[in-house]
Amino acid sequence: MVEQTRFEAGSQALADIDGAGGQAVVDSLQDIAPDLGRWIVEFAFGDIYTRTAISSQQRELVTLGSLVTQGDTAPQLTVHIQGALNVGLSQEQVVEAILQCVPYVGFPRVINAIHVARTVFTKPARRAV
Amino acid sequence: MVEQTRFEAGSQALADIDGAGGQAVVDSLQDIAPDLGRWIVEFAFGDIYTRTAISSQQRELVTLGSLVTQGDTAPQLTVHIQGALNVGLSQEQVVEAILQCVPYVGFPRVINAIHVARTVFTKPARRAV
Amino acid sequence: MVEQTRFEAGSQALADIDGAGGQAVVDSLQDIAPDLGRWIVEFAFGDIYTRTAISSQQRELVTLGSLVTQGDTAPQLTVHIQGALNVGLSQEQVVEAILQCVPYVGFPRVINAIHVARTVFTKPARRAV
Amino acid sequence: MVEQTRFEAGSQALADIDGAGGQAVVDSLQDIAPDLGRWIVEFAFGDIYTRTAISSQQRELVTLGSLVTQGDTAPQLTVHIQGALNVGLSQEQVVEAILQCVPYVGFPRVINAIHVARTVFTKPARRAV
Amino acid sequence: MVEQTRFEAGSQALADIDGAGGQAVVDSLQDIAPDLGRWIVEFAFGDIYTRTAISSQQRELVTLGSLVTQGDTAPQLTVHIQGALNVGLSQEQVVEAILQCVPYVGFPRVINAIHVARTVFTKPARRAV
Amino acid sequence: MVEQTRFEAGSQALADIDGAGGQAVVDSLQDIAPDLGRWIVEFAFGDIYTRTAISSQQRELVTLGSLVTQGDTAPQLTVHIQGALNVGLSQEQVVEAILQCVPYVGFPRVINAIHVARTVFTKPARRAV
């Protein structure tokens, strides 16, 4: 049951935090690398996101800092900017978190991330039904 | 007076958040690039850290995500891990924030950052007097 | 007046160096993160580009080296390749500056930047009117 | 004759390993930076790929690790994923090599590379005639 | 038992491939982030290294490409250069794998990695007893 | 004779630009990867630095932008900051070139590079005899 529990716990965390966008990432890997999708659920979300030392909002803030800095992560920023909104951060707070990266990675990465944020903010919300 | 206000506001924010470690960074630049130190105070801390859309704790979480991800930032991680403690995050929360980066940047960056955290946690607190 | 002077000086430097492309970047941020656009003008261009220890041509050469190396910076390379031409570097010199990065970052970053350069070189010049 | 030999040896290695995709990269640089294309042939392929201490399959595995990690390298990954197939690695092995990067660079870089692999795997093979 | 099996399988793979150096990394995390060490064993080695689509030699070649490229990974390169030797690659092949990165990331990363390789090659082998 | 010419031309360029520091890099590779040192001379310096579309000063400015941005390049920055001085840039201009990177890569990379510059500026000049 343990393995199932990791997958189940991860699936729940993925749904709670990243919502439909997170599941879409996992689904997109089914045809070519299904284990990669499973590891995202079991390891990233089952092992890590379920821990309680920091909140989901705090996790998304760290994640935004990481993704903005790394670059070439527009698809992941799209998921996690939506994720940040899903866990209760406001659009203003998401923008501010991205701006906080200016002193550490400079303007180009931040400008690119802000344009991703606009796209997330302005698209119609994805619905499950 | 405006320029002075940016410097003053930044100096206060730098002292409140990064404490002696932040001031040490600025001081270390006086002999060779004093304007660089001034920009850190005026721009990073005066213009950005003083904004209120997110809290100092939230800023430090974003910053940890950024610095862990960027790599070759041990001196800056040292300052901002201490800064995270200064604004009220616990050692456990700092460790957890660093661990949150594993899915996004892998183990090497995270292992290196954890060893920086240990050094910060175990050194005697710097005192002004 | 000081703050205004930084903005004014930065606006002038931005116009002189990056031209319409630089202003377009600032304008593109007005709806979502106007302060980010303001910081580009005041800090990057007002505080830094106005300094005289190196010339605008020298600044653009450093900037090309930085942007080519960083990766995921095609929009910024577009602006600064045009900026390099605006301050008097020739197309041949811009290409050569990009080629100079091969020993330091390898072929992929350089090939990608060369393709951006082609796009800049072949598009009709943007006009203000 | 030596210089010719480097170019000839490199052209042969480029054709053997990266096939039409590699030649297309070189050709794409002819109008703007022909020496860049020549260096790829002479230096990367003539000087390096012709060495025998490791096999072409081993070279492509190292190269996949490098390109996945670097990010913003989709065009180069496209060429070298095809190259890996050209030298006899299976689609399953290419996917596995990309997955091997998860512990070292995290999920975003790997997910992006997997989507490039799918594109390479599903497109009709390029033919010379 | 499943969870135990992942840990056990990972411990075996870690011992087989990275040897004492890999275990030393895990041990070094016990006091501050023991779960991080556990994830390296269970996820990196238990879930990934145990897969059979590519060999251990092939995994280490991909890993070398990744670590050389990422930079700021001297401790990890130290472990995996030794790991590459442990799984049967020769010193000459390890050097060649590092040199293969020159066209993709340039000379600085490769030079730094070569100096790490020298340190690994010349130190007395670590023994368990 | 052609191959010899590339090596000779590269050796001269290396000596003219990076001086003893450049030769020391090449020498440091003789025991473990002599071809890597040869490629630096033949390819980087023989093929590229000898071109005349931009000056040696301009090449060093691009190189500084690249190395500051890449990170984990302190040894290379040491050589090229000295190289920049060798080709006639002043200490003030080198500092300014490094500061020019702040808007593009943020403060950490720039602070680290400034400390490398101080070390270069304050060490006694290396002499051949």
Please specify the SSE layout and strand pairing.
Six copies of one chain form a homohexamer.
Chain A: H1 2-17, H2 19-28, H3 34-49, H4 56-70, H5 74-86, H6 91-99, H7 102-105, H8 107-122
Helix pairs in contact in A: 1-2, 1-3, 2-3, 4-5, 5-8, 6-8
| Low-confidence runs of chain A | none
Distance between the termini of chain A: 30 Å
- CATH domain fold name of the largest domain in chain A: AhpD-like
Classify the beta-strand content of chain A into a percent band.
Answer: under 5%
Count of individual helical segments of chain A: 8
CATH architecture of the largest domain in chain A: Up-down Bundle
Order of helices and strands of chain A: HHHHHHHH
CATH class (first level) name of the largest domain in chain A: Mainly Alpha
Helix and strand composition category of chain A: mainly alpha
Mean of residue pLDDT values of chain A = 93
Major sheet summary line of chain A: none
CATH superfamily of the largest domain in chain A: AhpD-like
